[in-house]
Amino acid sequence: MTSTFTENTESTSGSAVEAVRMGVFVPSTKAQWSGHTDPREVVSFGVRAERTGFDSLWATDSLLTPRLEALTVLAALAAVTGRVTLGTGALLPALRTPVQAAQTIASVDLLSGGRLVLGVGAGFPGRFGQPVYAMAGTPWPRRFRRLDETVELWRRLWSGEGPVSYHGEVLHFDDIAPGTRAFRPGGPPVWLGGATPAALARTGRLYDGWMPYPPDPADFGTGLAAIRTAAGEAGRGDAPITPALFVNTLITDAADGGRAALDSYARANYGLPVEEMETIQAVAAGTPEAVVEKLGRYVAEGARHLILRIAVLDIPAQTAQMDRLAALRPALNALLADVRGVPDAAGVRPDTAGVRRR
User: Fold this and answer.
1) What CA–CA distance (Å, rounded) separates 122 from 195?
2) Are 283 and 252 in contact (CB under 8 A)?
3) What is the distance between the alpha carbons of residues 28 and 7, in angstroms, rounded to a whole number?
4) pLDDT tens digit string along 89-134?
5) Reported CATH class of domain 21-340
6) Residue-range domain boundaries for the chain
7) CB neighbours (10 Å) of residue 192?
8) Beta bridge partners of 243
9) Number of helices and strands (H, E) in the chain?
10) pTM listed for this prediction
C-alpha cells in the first residue's frame, strides 16, 4: 500500500494542476530586526508576503533568544490576512501545558478560519534542547513519547466533546472539561519536523505532514520513501501527508556567493558559523539560478511545500529578498512539471535544463 503525499493537505484549492507551494518565515526573532525596528513591522511583512503571492507564513518557537511568541504572531496575522496558511516551524509543545495549549491552538485555528498548520518538534540534544525544557519545567527524558501523546490528546480536545480522560505512558488526565472545538474536524494538520529513522516512522504512523531541513536533497527523497513505507504499514496508505521543506535562502550577486551574509545570519540566529549551519540545515544561496537549482533538487526528491527562512538580518532587506524569491515560482513549477513528465498549466512542457536531479 502506498501513501498519498500532497502539497495541499492544509488547503482546499481544488487546483487540477500540481504546483510547488511557497511559504516564508516572518522575522519574529529579535536577531532579524535592526535597532530601530517596530515589532509590528513583522505583521506588515506577513501582509506583504500574502499580497506578493506566498502560500504560507511561518513563525519560530523557542525560549532561548528574544522573539515574538509563535502562536501570538499567528493570531495577529490571522486578523490581517485572508488566504495564506499560517504555520509554526516548529512549535515545541513541551514549553506549554497540554490542555492550555490545545485551547490556544484551537482559538488561532478559529480566528484564522481554519488556516492553521502546526509544525511540531521535540527539541535537540545539547544547548538548543535541554536548556529550553529546563526553563519550561518539563522533563527531557521520553520527550518523543510526550510529543506524540500531546498531539493525540490535542486531537481529542479539539473535537469539543467531553469530558476527556487520557492515560498514556507519560501524560495522565482525568475528566478534562470539553475543550474549544477547532475550526476543522480533528483540528489543524500537525506536521513533524524530525528526520531520524524513528521520526520518519512516527510521521508515517501519526502525522499529517513532514517538515525537515536535510542539507542533502537526496536525504529528503530517502526520508519520504521511509515515511511512505511506515504509513502503509500503519494502514494509512491513503492518508495525505504533506512533504514540506524548511530551507534557509539568500539571493545575491555577491562575488562570494553570499558567504559573508550567510555567516552573519548563522551567527546571529544560531550562534554558529555558516560552515556548521550548512552541516545541519538546508541552505539555498547565490544567484537566482543557483537558488532555483538547489531548491529544484529538493522538488525532484518530492518536496512540494518550500518554507523559506530568509537569511538576512533586517526587515527591509528581507522584504527585498521576499520579492526576489517570489519571482522564482514559475521556474520551480516548470521543474515540477518536468519531473512529473506533464505539461504546465498552459499546456507547455518546460525546458529545465539548468535544473537537474542529482
Assistant:
1) 12
2) no
3) 25
4) 999 999 999 999 999 999 999 999 999 999 999 998 877 789 999 9
5) alpha beta
6) 21-340
7) 29
8) 210
9) 12, 11
10) 0.91
